[in-house]
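Reply to thread "Modeling small-molecule complexes from scratch"

Following up on the discussion above, here's a worked example others can learn from. I took a protein sequence and the SMILES for zinc ion and predicted the complex. Inputs first:
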Amino acid sequence: MHIHLSDSLTGGQETRVYEAELGFDLFDDGVNRYPVVRKEPVRLRITKTGEKRLLFEAEVSFSLSVPCDRCLEPVTVPLSYEVSREADFKEGAEEEEAYLAEGYTLDVDALVRDELFMHMPAKVLCREDCKGICNRCGANLNQGDCGCDRTEPDPRMAAIRDIFRDANQ
Ligand SMILES: [Zn+2]
Ligand SMILES: [Zn+2]
């Protein structure tokens, strides 16, 4: 959603409040794409803080579907955060901010996405004791044991063992 800023820029030093719909259904971090599975309207406050200066404050709440780090099953990750940015509109300064579109317009989605990276959890697990997937057959071990023999040592260890064996021959 885009919000025109001409009224805020020409008016007095006041705060305008908006509710904006989140316009994206997928978050692409350049490596993975995460579907948005829940979203609430963005609560936005635009305050004129000085001559050609605006403060944007947004309260954001939505959920992304992110695969579990161990078993890859989708996990709903709720995200809530606040974005606060002040922008200067003197002499084309607005062109440097990705969330400000041409013609004094705020791109709410870009403002929200701008800080999304910082709020993504470093680790996502479907549950604390997720057993992950079998390294032999790929079965989800949370759904029961697949019966594979996983006692075989790490292949890297096997390679080292081979080196010792060859050296002793
Ligand atoms: Zn899992
Ligand atoms: Zn297996």
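What I'd highlight from this example: Residues 68, 70-71, 73, 125-126, 130 surround zinc ion (ligand 1) (CB under 6 Å). Residues 155-168 form the longest helix (14 residues). Questions welcome below.
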